[in-house]
Amino acid sequence: MHRLYKNDKFVYWEHVLNALKISGLFCVYLSMNYFVVREGNILLNETTLSYPTSAEYKAIQLKIDKNQEVINNSYSDSTATLPETEISRLSDENSKLYEQLYVIEKAELNSIRTQSIPIAWIFILLTILFPVLYIYYGLSKKDRIVLFTGLAILVFTVFTYKYYNQLYPLEYTITFAGIVMLIFSWWAIRYLKSNPAKFTYEADKDSENQDLLNAEALLVSQTVNQSGNVPEQGTHFGGGSFGGGGAGGNL
Predict the structure, then answer these.
(1) Among 113, 111, 108, residue whose Cα is nearest residue 39
(2) Is residue 220 part of a domain?
(3) Per-residue pLDDT tens for 95-143?
(4) At residue 5, does pLDDT exceed 50?
(5) 150 in any annotated domain
(6) Structure-model confidence comparison of residues 220 and 58, the more confident one
(7) What was the pLDDT predicted at 4?
(8) Which of 35, 59, 77, 97 has its Cα between 20 and 30 A from that of 144?
(9) Is residue 2 scored above 90 in pLDDT?
(10) What is the span of the domain harbouring residue 158?
């Protein structure tokens, strides 16, 4: 019942600290998650890539500039004798060259996306290891925040694996994940029952929900007692008595 004596300011800062703790746990995990690190590296390289620097790309770009210069001069100089057919040919050639540039740019971007990050195996290992560590720490230290955070990042770990490994259809993956979760739930229940020093099924004395349960039980008991004391409706007759020469009756 000590929570009843907590002021609003204390409860507010308790929520703030819990939020900071959850944010910190997520930030540590995301900084080591393979999906976040790899896709962030790709996004950074794509942003800094202005145009490819290969010799073929530069040669095509130079050819386009020369053709465009000839076309511009033919329109600006009234004495130019360049026929319209030649201008059309140069314009068509530039269109084809621009298509080649697009193909080269697309190929280089695809090469960036297919490249693996350095020491990728470390991030893959940490992506799998962090949820296990969070869940184990939450169970062993009786820390609900760490436990629930570990369960949440476990879902993101499965998403990371599924994003890069499309081995089975989605319905098979969901079914297999459900079976794994049932097995884990069964093991967790047995583990918690045999380790009362960890989590238990008993109500938490420090939980605010316990106060609500007590209030609910009090309200129900008062309602039942009041409903049991309601007098019955109708006419009730008392007993009668006869004796001696007279008669008497009580109603």
Answers:
(1) 113
(2) no
(3) 988 888 888 887 777 776 677 677 888 998 999 999 999 988 887 888 8
(4) no
(5) yes
(6) 58
(7) 42
(8) 35
(9) no
(10) 9-76+83-165
Contacts of 139 (CB under 8 A, 6+ apart): 147, 188, 191, 192, 198, 199
Q: How far apart are CA 104 and CA 53, in angstroms?
A: 10
What are the two backbone dihedrals, phi and then psi, of residue 235, each rounded to the nearest 5 degrees?
A: -95, 130
Q: Which residues pair with 249 in a beta bridge?
A: 240
Is there a contact between 57 and 104 (Cβ–Cβ < 8 Å)? yes
Q: In which band, very low, low, confident or very high, does the pLDDT at 1 lie, cut at 50, 70 and 90?
A: very low
Q: Any idea what the Cα angle at residue 243 is, between residues 237 and 245, rounded to 5°?
A: 120
Q: Is the pLDDT of residue 187 over 60?
A: yes
Q: What is the DSSP code (8-state) at residue 242? A: E
User: Cα(132)–Cα(140) distance, rounded to whole angstroms?
Assistant: 12
User: Does some domain include residue 92?
Assistant: yes
213 domain residue, yes or no: no
DSSP assignment letter at 5: G
Residue 231 has, within 13 A of its CA and on its CB side, a CA count of 4
Q: Phi and psi of 102, rounded to 5°?
A: -65, -40
pTM above 0.70, yes or no: no
User: What domain count does the chain have?
Assistant: 1
Map tokens 């130019």 to a residue: 80
